[in-house]
Amino acid sequence: MQKILTASKKERKDILFAILLLAPTLYLLLRIFILPIMQSLVWSFFKYNLMDGSAIEYVGLRNYVDISVLNDFWISMKNTSYFTGFSVLAELAIGFICALLLNQTFTGRSFFRGIIIIPWAMLTLVNGLLWNSIYQPGYGALNNILHQLHLLEAGTNPVWLSSSTNVVFFAAISDIWKMTPLMTLLLLAGMQSIPASLYEAVAIDGAGFWRKVWHVTLPQIKPSLLIALVLRVIGAFRVYDILTVFTANPNTSVSYLTYNFAFRYFYLGRASAMAWISTIFILILITIYMVLLKRQQKEQ
Amino acid sequence: MRRAAKTAHPWRIRIFKVSPSELIPPFYLWIGLLLLTIFTLLPFLYLITSSISQTQEIISGHLFPDLPTIQNYLKLFQGDIGNDFIQALENSITVSLWTTAVTIFVGLFASYALARIKFPFRVTLLFVILAMQLLPSISIIVPLYIMMREGISISIPFTSMVILHTKPLLDTTWSLVIAYIATGLPFAIWLMTGYFQSISKEMEEAAYMDGCSKIKTMHKIILPLALPGVAATAIFTFLNAWDEFIFASAFTQTYASKTLPIAVREFIGKHSIDWGLMTAGGFVASLPPVILSLFLFKYIVSGLSDGGIKE
């Protein structure tokens, strides 16, 4: 406030111009993002069942208490954490190796850099359908190939998507296939800014592959590595599309369970409370992301 | 001794030797690239081969069809299935184009202001926008659903005068456009602000010196320079809208309003799955984003490295 009052005429004109340019955005975001999400916070303290005709009534923290004793919620939380941890770590490891490969100079590099974008560009839902067909017992490509490689005995025919743990594991594989390219491109951008002279300097001391990675590559790309990691955790935590193809069991992810409460049973109060639990969790991650981002900008 | 061995196998040196500035010897590099290609392309090829197989062949476990057929594709565009699928394709195009147009148009002004003008709470606003960009759809899906169910009313601020009250928007493509603007606009602003900030300030100041007005400078100097960034943002916005599933599955129940992901999802019937038809549909739905990404690879990569990643 102090700043605005003491601003000179030119500065005041600037501020006015900025407000003018920002007005449509502020109106839209307020109307279709900020106010709705606040509305949902209010509803999370109400009993609000859309379909059974019961009255909307204030229930305090009951929705949150109900969720905290709900077994399904904790199972879904565990599954989401498992999915997120497994897929993000695998993407990070594979993406790092792919980025190392694609950062070298060799003939046909742009071809290899180009093809990795194909899985990422595919529809998330089609990705789920494709892998679902691969995992089918009997005729699915996975069993087929395993039989042909004699890794599976001729008579056996495992059903891969049998338990919720298996579903989450195999959904993570398909997520790894789709999202590793993104991780690769992010890390590749970080690696491209490492000057060749750093590698040459340690090469004089006789450093091989591992020492170059450990002493040059990793410390140099640490900021982009951390940022990519947090971003992917935020991205993987919301998983829904793939799971809805694989299984009808909503306990496989928090998003799935929240969606089911909202649009299958229309318990909007409870769904809002559950959505807000996710929101708060993601907001914590966002704060970490912002701190990392600020630190990186300072270093540059 | 060692020297003798070296001269005896020059090929060995060539494929295992690594230049000081590189990390991986050629031998391992090409093994890695081979694995990378298999891992990346094999599932995608399987999608294509399934889509040109008869269901009978898929069920009997043929990875490559003995008798390739384009029947699945014909079925996709003919008869009742064809009508629904073409309608979904049109809906996807409409929703994605409208979302992109509105988002870029509105976002351009905001990101210019955020990048170029000093005003109080600028950084706070930027971080709020970043946070909005990263929040999951599930955070706002319930209130937006109710909003679409009741119709949106636009009133004059601070009064109770209603200018416009729309019909309920559930089962219309408009509900999706609005939801996608809500999630896409923060993302677009965040990206474009970065691009605007990377344009040198001297250019702009030189234009002022020559007596250009603010609007004219923005139009004549800044916009052409920022065009690649704006293009990248538009591609991302389009791809996100094309791919979106969770809002679409909650808001649209009728074939008149369903988008491609939902239409393809419905090929999973209650009792059996027509794999051929489904993979053909999946391939057609994925083709536009895949082609777009391959052709505009350069823009996508610059967009990614500038810190704007959603999914």
TrEMBL record, chain A:
ABC transmembrane type-1 domain location: 77-292
Keywords from the named record: Cell membrane, Membrane, Transmembrane, Transmembrane helix, Transport
InterPro entries membership: ABC_transporter_permease, MetI-like, MetI-like_sf
Transmembrane helix among keywords: yes
Localization, UniProt: Cell membrane
Highest taxon above the source species: Bacteria
Residue ranges of the TM segments: 15-38, 82-102, 114-134, 225-247, 267-292
Membrane topology, as annotated: Multi-pass membrane protein
Key word Coiled coil present: no
Record-stated family: Belongs to the binding-protein-dependent transport system permease family.
Protein name (record): ABC transmembrane type-1 domain-containing protein
Biological source species: Paenibacillus helianthi
Automatic annotation (TrEMBL), chain B:
Keywords: Cell membrane, Membrane, Sugar transport, Transmembrane, Transmembrane helix, Transport
Bilayer topology: Multi-pass membrane protein
Subcellular location: Cell membrane
UniProt domain ABC transmembrane type-1: residue ranges: 89-296
Parts of the chain that traverse the membrane: 27-48, 95-115, 121-145, 176-196, 221-242, 275-297
Lineage top rank: taxon: Bacteria
Record carries keyword Cell membrane: yes
Any single Pfam family the record assigns to this protein: BPD_transp_1
Family statement drawn from the similarity comment of this UniProt entry: Belongs to the binding-protein-dependent transport system permease family. MalFG subfamily.
Name the UniProt record assigns to this protein: ABC transmembrane type-1 domain-containing protein
Protein species of origin: Paenibacillus helianthi
High-level lineage: Bacteria, Bacillati, Bacillota, Bacilli, Bacillales
